[in-house]
Amino acid sequence: MSAGTQGTPGVRAVERAESETRLPRLYRVLLHNDDYTTMEFVVEVLEGIFGKSPAEAYRVMMHVHLNGIGACGAYPHEIAETKVALVHERARGRGFPLRASMEEE
After folding, report:
1. Percentage of the chain surpassing pLDDT 90?
2. Is the pTM for the entire model greater than 0.85?
């Protein structure tokens, strides 16, 4: 309260409740290994859709190849959905059965 309104009848200080800014929930986008999609195509997807450097794309691709599944990144729901759809669209367009999914972090 400023000194000029202290004790003035009819004047009240209004307190603002501090609002907490919440970050959006993140969803992990996963690639699933299969026996037909080439490693080169998976690297291309990781670079083109997920913005990975060639070295990082290769690392993620090898993780998917050796473990059957691997994370490409974590994004807000709508972005994760879009990336999953882009993977499927690009893979089908090239004749590959590559599958992507998403899960909440």
Report:
1. 77
2. no
